[in-house]
């Protein structure tokens, strides 16, 4: 497929391939984020700005795998039983599903659209930003809540803010059908400059940290600053900051950035109980990204169960190169080329006990660090279809790293990939 034809298809969908049974998809991550900036059912005939991305032409370097059965057995013996069982169950689904899609698509096919590479200075700035980033997604004690009326953005002129602190903890809304622009003055030790952000239509967000259960009790505020508990959503999507020993050892992060499992479980439970809409005829859905640690998997199950939710689907994101090869070996012991999104729905009396969750395979070439596929298009296809494609549901994304049109987003990094520096000029 030529670059022009690929871009033409990119304007309409981020799904390069979908199996007839809707259990296997090939997604393009940059296109999914680009389309998420547009209103559902109102996709423009052309997307003027393209999201800067990276290429993944070859598999990642990885430690040598054990060469003998005895060496492999020794490594397996060091993996906790619960984690080994979890990974074996995922592997048993991913391997045949991947082989089937590879036979249908072939390694010579396009496994992603043409990608736009940022200037070298933007890559350097992102690396610098990562090193400077100290603000956690979750904080205890909680910051003082700025409870008050939301800030309504103008779409007819640029919305000026003297600093990011003017946005912290405040609900920001763009209720219009057009994009809005934010300009923020940013003073650092070395320089003074402005940063500009493009806010999608019908998008709302809170930039700031979430509150732990203990600080909620002390300060009598909700887990999400300025979000009233009466505000309900049909879909809640989370990418939690799971505990990570390598990150904890790094001096670049506060030690409380990555919370203990108990705190994360309590936070997720509070969000589900307060904000999931279960009182009408529409679907109520929760999605939780997990790591390949069985502990995160078990914690997500615990959070869902404590909120009277059950896991009904598992979406496995298989990471491949641009030629369709897994970025690390599928049968590798040191690293796995996938991440799992658990889908939870309210428990019902008619639900059969012991029923295994439906598994879907999402194949996508990885992108910039911390970017995941934007799943708006897929959720609307599978759970909220309409004849004209218009959005008929409400959605909340927690620990978001970019905004989505028609959705409410929160987290300390919620504006990251809506910064204009990540987008090519039209």
TrEMBL record:
GO annotations of cellular component type: nucleus
UniProt-recorded Gene Ontology molecular function terms: methyltransferase activity; nucleic acid binding
Record's compositionally biased regions (Basic and acidic residues): 127-136
Residue ranges of the region described as Disordered: 127-146
Any single biological process term in GO: methylation
PROSITE patterns per UniProt: MT_A70, N6_MTASE
InterPro entries: DNA_methylase_N6_adenine_CS, MT-A70-like
Family note: Belongs to the MT-A70-like family.
Protein name: MT-A70-domain-containing protein
UniProt organism field: Talaromyces rugulosus (Penicillium rugulosum)
Lineage: Eukaryota, Fungi, Dikarya, Ascomycota, Pezizomycotina
